[in-house]
Amino acid sequence: MPGKGVVDRRRPDAPDDAAPAPPPRYRRPPGELVRWAATRTLRRTGRPFPSQAALRRELLLLLRRRDPLFALGERRMREILVDLPGLHVKVRYAERPTRRPLVRCPVCGRSLRPIRNRTLWDDRVTLGYRCRHCGYWTHLRRRVPVRYQFLPAGIDGTPWPDPDSETPKPNPDHP
């Protein structure tokens, strides 16, 4: 209990001369601005990003030119960019043994639908789960995303070839 003359700031009947709220320490950029920054970054660099941390660093450099208080988490960035035209998200998975049912997609955050099968005795068995939005699926041995790669893509969604890859060049002398 506060002493005499001490104002308890948690109470709704506090006086109007209370101290002003501190300025914000960060701001969340709107989704459209994040999409614009990602499109511009991918078009400018023309190269794939090997991890979501690398793409986030590049996006924050561009976003903080507009507002130095902008902050962007990796999960929110991925959920915004997973369906961006011109960007292909490649996910590498690891299997983890668990029987707990999934509710949300670990890639895009949307709801999952069970993959079911009917047995000979007319029972329904859940074989796994699928996301209709991003294509993630898992069976009862859980597939957990461990690495996200962001690749520039064409209009149809197919990723561009990596200029640094070791793809063999066609030999014009060989039929």
Comma- or semicolon-separated keywords:
2 domains; 3-stranded antiparallel beta sheet; two-stranded antiparallel ribbon; 5 strands
Could you characterize what this model shows?
With 175 residues, this protein is of the alpha+beta class. The protein has 2 domains: 64 residues, no CATH class; 59 residues, no CATH class. Helix content is 22%, strand content 22%. A 3-stranded antiparallel sheet has the order 2-3-4, with no helix packed on it. A two-stranded antiparallel ribbon has the order 1-5. α1 crosses α2. It is flat and about 75 Å long. 17% of the residues are buried.
Quick overview:
The chain is of the alpha+beta class and 175 residues long.
For the record, give the distance between the C-alpha atoms at the N and C termini, rounded to a whole number. Answer: 90 Å
Mean of residue pLDDT values: 83
Summarize the amount of helix as a percent range: 10-25%
Tell me the count of domains. 2
How much of the sequence is in beta strands?
Answer: 15-25%
Low-confidence parts: 167-171
E-strand count: 5
Q: Can you summarize the main beta sheet?
A: 3 strands, antiparallel
What's the arrangement of secondary structure elements?
Blueprint: H1 31-45, H2 52-66, H3 74-81, E1 87-97, E2 113-118, E3 124-130, E4 137-139, E5 141-152
